[in-house]
User: Fold this.
Amino acid sequence: MSCTNLMKTVRLADGSCMPSVGLGTWKAEVARVTGLICEAVETGYRHLDCACDYGNESAVGAGLERVFREGLCRREDLWITSKLWNTYHDPRHVRLACERSLQDLKLEILDLYLMHFPIALEFVPFELRYPPGWFYDPAAPEPKMKPAPVPIAETWGAMEELVSLGLVKRIGVCNFGTSLLRDLLSRARIRPSVLQVELHPFLTQQKLLRFCREEGIGVTGFSPLGALSYFALGMAGKEESVVEAGPVVQAASRHGRTPAQVLLRWGIQRGTAVIPKTSSRARLQENLNIFDFELTDEEMKGIDDLDRGRRFNDPGDFCERAFNTFFPIYE
Assistant:
């Protein structure tokens, strides 16, 4: 993928360029996804972020099939990411999981394959349940997660084999901190290309970003608009809406933009990719229209200073509430 406009891409250590604005497909309704993929590509998106756990990769695949059939875009012009789910960390299951995502997405190769969480759970066969979710046995009287004793290094070794087999071009991780990254880097034959983590002004993760820059690891921020995706899940309060924060609203007013556009611009101006999710054609366009203005240093600092270390997507919180299992990973 061309790096002709550096603000529109994130340059990775292998010289490739990941589009800095992608379409997130988490929580995207299956019935809407196929058409949404076509609309996104028509609008100009060239980066699609997918995952087994989202339960909609088949619908994404149908959209991609239509995109290519109608000549809306060439495969080589798209960046498509998928993720290895927690139940497939055992090296015996990594290739199977990747091949299932490729089958659903109707692709021969992924641009990026990420370890979704540093959480290994017991294997759930495809024929029993797919995607498997977090519970080992949802029908149990008290269903819980069932951790599996699989070292991250072993999972990573199997992911490295996916590159050797030509199933994926690059591999990376999600939801890792610096300690886990250091350990992985000390053992990896293939270094992680990308780290995907939660990033927004209430969780700026400055030290983590600096570490990744120094190590040549690209960064993608999920939930770039903060709490919006978490209100309906009961994982955030309305008072935690970063789109209503003073520095964001003020910058939006000065530039004649929406608060959401300011937040996305803040993300790419930090050198990260962002993957906002929307099902609206108007919002698709709005989220891409962030390359013709620039936040001042003062505006960037004002937004940076909103940091309160507020993580909305935290297994240490939601696993206990939703899956009856205490499972912290960041502490």
Observations:
- The two ends are 37 Å apart (CA to CA).
- The longest strand covers residues 79-84.
- The domain at 19-166 is CATH 3.20.20.100 (TIM Barrel).
